[in-house]
Amino acid sequence: MTADKTTILIVEDEPAIVELVSFTLKEAGWHAIAVNSATDAWDMLQRRVPQLILLDWMLPDQTGLRLLARIRADRQLQAMPVIMLTAKSMEEDKIAGLEHGADDYITKPFSPRELTARIKAVLRRKSPEHAQKTMSAGPVNLDPVSCSVMLDGQKIEIGHAEYKLLKFLMAHPERVFSRGQLLDKVWGDHVVIEERTVDVHVLRLRKALKDAGDLIKTVRSVGYMLSEK
Ligand code: CA
C-alpha cells in the first residue's frame, strides 16, 4: 500500500519523459503513476484520486487542456492541483493553460530540480496537509514529520487512519467535508471503503482526543468539520 505517500499522476505520452519524471518523483519520496492518454487518465481518476497531476499539453487522443477543463468541471476533482507540462514556450499558450485553471506550468525540457520545486510549491499552496509543518487546534498539536499527536503537550496513542483523518481536518479547519469527500481526501481510494467507515474512524478519533474530541463536529446530514468554535 502506498496510501501514506503523496501520489502524483503523470499524464504523458513520451516514454522518455515519463521515465525521467517517474524517477524524479520517486527520488523526491513521492509515488508516481503514469498513463499515456487523456482517456486513461480520466479512467484512473474515477478509481483513484492522486494529490497532484502532471499533465502534458499534447496527448494522442485529446489535448491536456481539454482534460484540464473536464477536471475543473468535476465536483470531486475540481480542486485537484494540476501542473501542465508543455513543449510550447509561446506566451499565449501559458496564459491559456492558466486561464483553464492550471496551477502552474513547466516548459520542456526541464530539470528534475525545477520539477520537484514546482510540485512542492503547488502542494504547499493547494494541499496544506502535505506540507511538513506542525499544526495545532486548541490543545491538540500534530507533527507530520514524526507522525505524532500531542494533547496538552502529552503524546497520545492514535490509530493510523485516525491520524490521517485528524491531519486532514486540521489542515482544513472550519470547513465541512462529506463522508465521500473525506474518503477521497484521506483514504484516497473511494471504492474500497464504505462511507460508514468514516463514522467509525471519527468516533475513534474523538475518543483518542479525549476532552478535545469535541473539536470534531458533526454537521447534520452533511458530514464533519474541525472547529474551535
Ligand atoms: Ca505529448
Could you explain how this protein is built, in words?
The protein is an alpha/beta fold. It is built from eight helices and twelve strands. A five-stranded parallel β-sheet has the order 2-1-3-4-5, sandwiched between helices. It has a four-stranded antiparallel β-sheet with strand order 6-7-8-9, covered by helices on one side. A three-stranded antiparallel β-sheet has the order 10-12-11. Strand 4, helix 4 and strand 5 form a beta-alpha-beta unit. The longest helix has 15 residues, at 112-126. The two termini are 36 Å apart.
What labels would you give this structure?
elongated; 5-stranded parallel beta sheet; 229 residues; single chain; 39% helix; 4-stranded antiparallel beta sheet; alpha/beta; 21% strand; binds calcium ion
How is the topology of this model organized?
Layout: E1 7-11, H1 15-27, E2 31-35, H2 38-47, E3 52-56, H3 64-72, E4 82-86, H4 91-99, E5 104-107, H5 112-126, E6 135-137, E7 140-143, E8 148-151, E9 154-155, H6 160-171, E10 177-178, H7 179-187, H8 196-208, E11 216-219, E12 223-226
Parallel strand pairs: 1-2, 1-3, 3-4, 4-5
Antiparallel strand pairs: 6-7, 7-8, 8-9, 10-12, 11-12
The chain binds calcium ion (CA).
Calcium ion binds next to loops.
